[in-house]
Each structure stands twice: as C-alpha cells, then as structure tokens.
Automatic annotation (TrEMBL):
Name of this protein: Cytochrome P450
Residue intervals passing through the bilayer: 6-23
Record's signal peptide: none
Coiled coil start-end: none
Top-level taxon of origin: Eukaryota
InterPro entries: Cyt_P450 (IPR001128), Cyt_P450_sf (IPR036396)
Organism (species): Favolaschia claudopus
Length: 157
C-alpha cells in the first residue's frame, strides 16, 4: 500500500513540475527577452527592494543606469513587470485604444482627484459638467477683475 502512495505522489509531483514549466514557458515570452535585475526571492520578487528602501529611488535609479529606460523586474510570486521611464514610450502605450485602466485604477483616481480635470474620462457628461463649472471663471467680467491681481503679482516678481 505504501508503494502505491509513493508512486502516486511521485507521479503527481512530476505532472505538477512538467505543467508548471510548460505554463511558464508559454506566458510572457516577450518580457523575458527584456533585461532586468535578478530577483532575490520568488515570493516577493523585487518588490521589497522597491518599497522598503531607506532612500527613495535607490534601486530604480541604479537599474535605470544599468538596464536603460525600459527594464523588466519581478513582482510577487514570480510575476514579470515592466518599468518604463521613457516619456515617448509611455505616451505611445497610454494613447493606444487597446490600453484601458482597470477598475481599481479608475476608482482610485476618482477617489483621489474627485473626478476633476486630471481624471476626466471620455464621457461627454463629465466634459459638459467640468466645462460649465470652469466657464464662470473665464467670462469677460471675471477676467477684468483679474487684471489688478496679475499686475500686483507681476510687480512682486
């Protein structure tokens, strides 16, 4: 009976090992070709280095010099992540129609910015609401009342 258990455990572990490597080989082949720092831990990846540093940006700036403006690092549980610090590359990625913010990011932005100018979506309703609120400050009477303020600031500067 013990031999059957050992055989079953051995076969199960072998299948797990093979399936893990097949799955791992199939996903994120593009990211694997991008250079990046080695991960000190499979569980935490490079996340401890990024979040618990005594000096902000200590590792990021070092990796930026070593690997360039786009590099790969490891997230928790072996997840591949991409760090992009090139403004042109970021603009290209974020302006594509395929790129969409996840629900968590959208809710977080609305919570922080209260759906203001910095977090305006493509919704016509949002645009109309914001335009109505801002129009009051740009009427002829309002702009004329700003002239003394601008003159005083210009004199100070």
């Amino acid at each position: 009976m013990d031999e059957v258990r050992y055989t079953l455990v051995l076969v199960s572990l072998t299948l797990l090992y093979v399936s893990y490597h097949l799955f791992h080989r199939m996903r994120n082949d593009e990211l694997r070709e991008i250079r990046g720092p080695a991960s000190p831990s499979w569980i935490f990846g490079n996340m401890l280095q990024l979040t618990l540093t005594p000096t902000y940006g200590e590792y990021e700036f070092e990796w930026l010099k070593k690997y360039g403006a786009v590099y790969r690092f490891k997230g928790c549980f072996g997840e591949d992540r991409l760090m992009i610090s090139d403004p042109a590359a970021l603009h290209t990625l974020l302006s594509r129609e395929q790129f969409a913010l996840g629900p968590g990011m959208g809710n977080g932005g609305r919570l922080i910015y209260n759906a203001g100018c910095t977090w305006l979506t493509d919704s016509e309703k949002d645009h109309q609401r914001l335009r109505t609120a801002l129009n009051e400050g740009f009427t002829v009477a309002a702009v004329r009342s700003y002239i003394p303020i601008f003159e005083r600031v210009a004199q100070t500067v």
